[in-house]
Specification:
About 30% of the residues lie in helices and about 25% in strands.
């Protein structure tokens, strides 16, 4: 029996198993950018969705979004998400995967049909969190929201997990490059 060959084979096997365990522990078995399996609940939190339009600096309706002046295109939100479930996404651009109920899915479908080619702002506490340009009609029970920096992501996670932030508009930084 060749003990040296057997030992090398055994050591190689152990190294492969050990490497797999380390990779699985680091990524939770997920590829980068995939949501985690843990579904969380945003108790008492409401995100509102508005179409937005370009504004002129000095206009009292102006809201800051990445250095631009924009304003809501409607007086009332076109949809709201209250007490929703979500999963975290950890990637180069961290984010949330918001799970929609049947009603919210239908509202999102109608909104993206009506406002195709327009930016829809996801708003919390009068601060625009995310305003992607709608390039296609969305018919899904999940809505992905990414953040341009980890600080904003952490601020939102702390809010979703129940932290009270006295002046949210000062904590959330709208200074990243625009979504295109």
């Amino acid at each position: 029996m060749n003990w040296a060959g057997l030992n090398r084979g055994f050591i190689s096997f152990i190294m492969v198993v050990f490497s797999f365990c380390i990779l699985s522990a680091c990524t939770g078995g997920k590829k980068a950018g995939e949501p985690s399996d843990k579904v969380l609940k945003a108790e008492g939190i409401t995100f509102s969705v508005y179409p937005i339009k370009a504004g002129v600096k000095g206009d009292p309706r102006c809201r800051k979004y990445y250095g631009d002046c924009v304003f809501f295109g409607t007086d009332n939100p076109i949809m709201t998400l209250t007490g929703f479930e979500y999963t975290k996404i950890s990637a180069k651009k961290p984010g949330l995967m918001i799970h929609l109920g049947k009603k919210e899915r239908q509202e999102l479908h109608r909104a993206t049909q009506k406002y195709l080619g327009t930016q829809l702002a996801i708003v919390y506490n009068q601060v625009i969190l995310h305003a992607p340009k709608i390039k296609t009609v969305i018919d899904s029970d999940k809505l992905q929201m990414t953040f341009c920096n980890r600080r904003n992501y952490k601020v939102i996670l702390s809010v979703l997990q129940g932290a009270l932030i006295e002046d949210f508009s000062k904590e959330y930084d709208c200074g990243c490059a625009k979504d295109k």
